[in-house]
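Please predict the structure of the following assembly.
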Amino acid sequence: MEELIQTLKEQIIDALNLEEITPEDIDNDAPLFGDGLGLDSIDALELIVILDRFYGIKLANPAEGKEIFKNINTIADYISKNRTK
Amino acid sequence: MTQDSISITGLGILCAIGNDAESVLDSLRKGVSGIRRMKYLSSKHDYLPVGEVQLSEDQMKAMLGIDNPQPMSRTTLMGAIAIRQALQHAGIEDVTGKRVVLINGTTVGGMDLTEKYFQQMKTDDSLLDLPQGNECGKSTVEMAELAGVGTARTCTISTACSSALNSIILGCEMLRADDADIVIAGGSEALSKFHLNGFNTLMILDKQPCRPFDATRAGLNLGEGAAFVVLEKNSAKSLAYVSGYGNRCDAFHQTASSENGEGAYLAMTEALNMAGMKPSDIQYVNAHGTGTPNNDVSESQALKRVFTEKMPYVSSTKSFTGHTTSASGSIETAICILAMQNDFVPANLGWTQQSEGCIAPCLGLSGVQLDNVLCNSFGFGGNDSSLVISKVAHAEISHERPCHEYETASHITLSAEDDLKSLKAFISPMELRRMGTLMKAAHLSALRALKEAGIECPDAIVTATAKGMFSTSIQFLEDINANDEELLKPTLFMQSTHNTISSAIAIRTGCHGYNITYSHSDDSFKWAMYDASRLIRTGKARSVLVGFYDESTPLFDSFDERAGRKPSEPLHAESLVLIRK
């Protein structure tokens, strides 16, 4: 799980161009949207592309992302249960 | 005292429900939608229903009498057909001695052709003229020639999905200022793999026929088409009259509308005020109504704010035509005129279930007299415009048009050599992370110009760009090809429309005022200056931020080099603040 979390953080930093942020800066339990890291609705769409590209998970409805993308732990948990690659 | 009225004396239209006004009218009255399975566009995502014009490029060429095997852009061909129809309808044959202006709204321009030959152009020297046709302005000029009005002055507006309505607004202003005798205004937009994939990354395309304002709505269907109207002053033979208009900016988000529909509310209110009308004077609203969860609830909120006492009939005809993006404003203006002339309210197809927060649309009604209708057209970046169309001429609120002089309060020009790091003083890293070089340079020059002029939020923002967000667009096109239309980045698409910079600066400065982008090749800046000075002259703005932003890309530089054309400037970002003297 720890390896997945580290890879996932790197993928997020790269896809969202979070140039000044390192994986260590992102707390696994901290909210990614709103008051936390401050991501927005377009970032949520980029996260959907990450799930598809690296883990073979296709979300049909962006609304599904709301629960999954709460924090790094929730995403990693969802990936480990649903990945197809 | 002047009491000019703006007459609409002709219209031309082709879209998914017909190739001329008569067949469009017939489909509207019968309630037959044009949203079908994809036939002319070639895309992997052919399961997405679209509203295509049921003509091949060859059939369009034949209609125009073009005997030329060279590939041509659908945007250009459709536009030329609609312009010809409009002129014929208006009974205009000879324009000798008349000052004719053609104003076209488009974002795709010749991109439908560029994307088709994108890989081939990289190696095939016989295709080296094609990249030039990518520019929106080039498409307009070619359209004018094909339509037989090659001597007209031409202009191109690109404010994404409100482009065509803004063309009509500029046309009216030019007539009022006596800068033209005849204006042909509207827009044309072909479906492209580019924006089909782009909207797909935003996850706002419905796999079923769209259902605007319905509780189960799940997005829009893209459509294509062109429509133009002929505008003249005080004509004795009018189809209808333009009695008011408003252009405002939501200044909220690049691809989403604000919850209370502020930009839409301001645009509708401005249009009604200009027409000297009360909300109760309007019998029908042709809504922007795309069918996305966000647009329809936001527009409904704005409608409820404007029409507090009694909601007029409202429907979205995108349920017939699909969302024809940059052409939608003039296509729906034409539909409003047809409805007005034939006493009916077009249906909002697909609606069965009331959605919380939304208006209840009209499902079609005949035998209704429509004296005044409102047509809404909103674009990415919150470029929101509204038009009031009337059956009879309304005496405009008779006052002298003011004539103020302007001066330049500040003027900043940046090039590729300039250090953009100082932008950090204005913008946080979280916001900077998405910006490409052109966007950064544009922001730096604009924010410095505003600071130097001592203005935090200008009254209006007028932008010029020949090529738009060029490197972003080309990157998206490269990705479409490299990844076979999969795994594309929404971040790239959301910044790919020509009006991205103008609306991003509006969002940053909180400017809800007039906002427009001119994309007419080398004349883009000239048109922007014309419009900006007009705003000050007529008292509509006391301060205007004018910007001129363009960039080249290595790929298109290589095309120019191979073709022996002079190289483009790598980066140009110029911002001025004009103020009333």
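Chain B has 19 helices and 17 strands. The longest strand of chain B covers residues 6-15.
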